[in-house]
Design brief:
alpha/beta; 13 helices; about 350 residues
Length: about 350
């Protein structure tokens, strides 16, 4: 991705248990933030969290970021765009209410894949209920992997505003998402400014990190390309890295979030996906190089020097006292994983997950 090697993670604030970082050095036209908080760390490290709790875990960090944007005068009047149904996981309306930001209206869109000869031929808006709030901030909550749905919906909305002779001030996006989102939003801003020169751009908040999607099936041979999120080539909040590496198994999960909609509404499908993954790991354990898998999950070949680790993680602007401790913790984690087999890890996760969510198993 353009300028990615020049990007540095810079601390913006740390208040009310919420750590906020901003990307600097990428020469981007938009603003990109990474936010870390106890509840979102728990959500992304614990696939056992399902149902309403998925939504609830996002409230503290979302509210704090909206308070910050209000204080910075980046948002005054708001209109929420709900891209069904992924948007229902994001507490934008509730967080606006908590931070005394007036929501003038909520718009709804449903974009679905169109198939031709059993192949995806494109996307089509199946349901639309749009309202206009001229010169306002449009707020969106969405998982950004390939970003195709987001592009399709944003073009639909901006066309709607233009046809009605109105424009948007800016767009704020909250996402559990990947690096591809930055490339997409940079291009969209340039596109939008061709007809709205005063458009301030996108402000994007990534929960816990800017992740990457697998481009193949991964070392395990199980991962889904352009769908499953992991750390490699991304930028991870130091707090999230610290918490993940304080436990044995979260780093090895199939995906950072799995299917957000299934976790909230079709919980039995989520349970099946998680168990299918770990059963697959158990079945292939003897054929998977554990060292190679660990390097893939942690994001780079090990061992790695402290200096190279800092550069790889974009941590040059983070306090050395924090990064040195985190580096040592990571080396300890790598060393500790030499004492466990992949089959043991899979057996442990299958037992834990089954015991926790057995009521959802058919």
């Amino acid at each position: 991705m353009k300028n990615w090697n020049q990007v540095k993670l810079v601390s913006e604030f740390n208040e009310q248990g919420v750590a906020c970082y901003k990307l600097a050095g990428g020469n981007y036209v938009n603003e990109y933030y990474v936010v870390s908080e106890a509840e979102t760390r728990k959500l992304l490290n614990t696939p056992e969290i399902v149902g309403y709790e998925v939504y609830d875990c996002l409230i503290p960090s979302t509210s704090q970021m909206l308070y910050y944007f209000k204080e910075q005068k980046k948002v005054t009047t708001a209109n929420i765009l709900s891209i069904l149904r992924g948007a229902l996981n994001y507490p934008l309306e509730e967080s606006c209410y908590r931070e005394h930001i007036r929501v003038h209206d909520i718009s709804f869109l449903s974009s679905e894949r169109v198939f031709a000869d059993e192949e995806i031929a494109g996307l089509e808006i199946k349901y639309s209920k749009l309202t206009m709030v001229p010169d306002s901030t449009l707020m969106i909550g969405d998982i950004i992997a390939s970003g195709e749905t987001l592009i399709h919906c944003l073009r639909y909305v901006t066309d709607f505003y233009r046809k009605n002779g109105a424009k948007l001030r800016n767009i704020i996006i909250f996402t559990i998402g990947g690096t591809k989102g930055i490339e997409i939003l940079e291009n969209l801003t340039r596109e939008i400014r061709e007809f709205w020169p005063e458009f301030e751009g996108f402000i994007t908040v990534y929960y816990e990190g800017i992740f990457s999607t697998y481009q193949d099936k991964g070392v395990s041979g199980i991962n889904l390309p352009d769908v499953d999120f992991y750390w490699k080539d991304g930028i991870i909040a130091p707090e999230f890295r610290r918490e993940t590496l304080s436990m044995c198994s979260p780093l090895f999960e199939k995906c950072i979030i799995y299917d957000g909609g299934a976790r909230r509404y079709e919980i039995h499908e989520h349970v099946e996906e998680v168990l299918e993954f770990w059963e697959g790991i158990k079945e292939r354990a003897d054929k998977i190089d554990f060292k190679e898998l660990l390097d893939e999950k942690i994001g780079y070949p090990t061992p790695i020097s402290y200096e190279d680790w800092i550069e790889k993680n974009h941590y040059e602007k983070i306090r050395p006292a924090d990064t040195k401790w985190l580096y040592r913790q990571e080396q300890g984690y790598i060393e500790s994983m030499k004492n466990i087999t992949l089959k043991e890890l899979a057996d442990q996760r299958i037992t834990e997950f089954t015991d926790s969510l057995k009521k959802y198993m058919l």
